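QA checklist item 7 of 12: single-chain prediction sanity check.
[x] sequence parsed
[x] length recorded as 415
[x] structure emitted
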Amino acid sequence: MNLNLFIAKKIKGRGLSTMTNGIACVSVAISIAVILAAVAVSGGFRQEISRRVAGFTGEILITVPGLDYMNDIYPLQADLSYLPEIEAIPGITSVSEAAYKPGMVKSDGDVHGVMFKGVDSTYSLDFFADFLTEGSLPDFSGRRMSDEVLISKRLADMLGYGAGDRMTVYFISDQVRVRRLVISGLYDVQLESMDERLALLDIRQVRRLNGWEDHESSCLEICLGGGWGKAAERERTRVYERIGEIIMDRDLTEDAPVVVRQVSELYPGLFDWLALLDLNVLVVMVLMMAVAGFNMISGLLIILFEKTSMIGLLKSLGMRTSNICRVFIYRGGAIVLRGLLWGNAAALVLLAVQKWLRPMRLNPDNYFVDFVPVDISLLHVVAIDAAAFALMLLVMTVPSLFISRVSPDKTLKIS
């Protein structure tokens, strides 16, 4: 049997040390719970907001050089010779054409600029189905051009429209063209900058308005569907680089030049905000670990002061200082483990309640979502617990140095 561990189990505090150990245990529990919550909320925001942004554009886009992906002037020849090679890249779930056309929507006493995004029947509407609040999704699969349009609830409220209403749209270029469209449904993604200006329309309508032929589009949207964690980010980078390699290896005389862009390049403000959120989480982790470490040092020092005579006795019996240090580190480790257990239990219960019931709500105008999103990862929990435990053990070596200064002859006289 491990003698150091046996002695550590037999050490019992009394009075002040018992109270201090309790405070240290609670401190570790609160610190680990706060850290787990901060990491889960940060990951939740990254997952939710990134998913919503990518739902409008896809994770990777192929566009015309020097122009915005919503370009309606110079079309991209979407029937690229190397497109099958791109579609065969592992991780890519879909490659879809999209064409854009700006228009003006008029209602009683109000005019609002809207960007109409044209898609075809092969375009996945699952993202918009998740955020559909009224009506139904448009059907673009007919042989004739559809006059259905999907707009946001925010835009509908501004203009006084509802699902099933007819909407008059003016497209202005070299001449004014008027279209009467039927609002099939309303979506509410809660990204104000996108909701207010984006509507979904049949791509054949947009191509006719732009004067484009079949397979002429504003951009190609590439979806991966791999989440938004660190591993998924590395996978997107790999696919992005692979697409760039395929394009660079082609003869430029065979296909028109194109540019590959990631969604993070289109909305740098949002992704910078997410990066700042990660920095805040790092600050919280440092502060919480500092508080827990300070309390653990205090608790262990009080135990050492109470057990000074025992330390002297063990030294007089020939026990090495390093082994005595291990005795008290084992004792402190038990306190840390108890705190980690309670902290994990509290954090996981609260996070699970928020994930499934969403009792904590937010203002979407400020946070882009109407609830506090959480992303619970078992890997993150294990990694944080392991790092916290190792750090606490390292911190506890500091008060253990007190043991080397204890003199057996003096402590035994005192006892």
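[x] summary fact logged: Residues 16-57 form the longest helix (42 residues).
[ ] second reviewer sign-off
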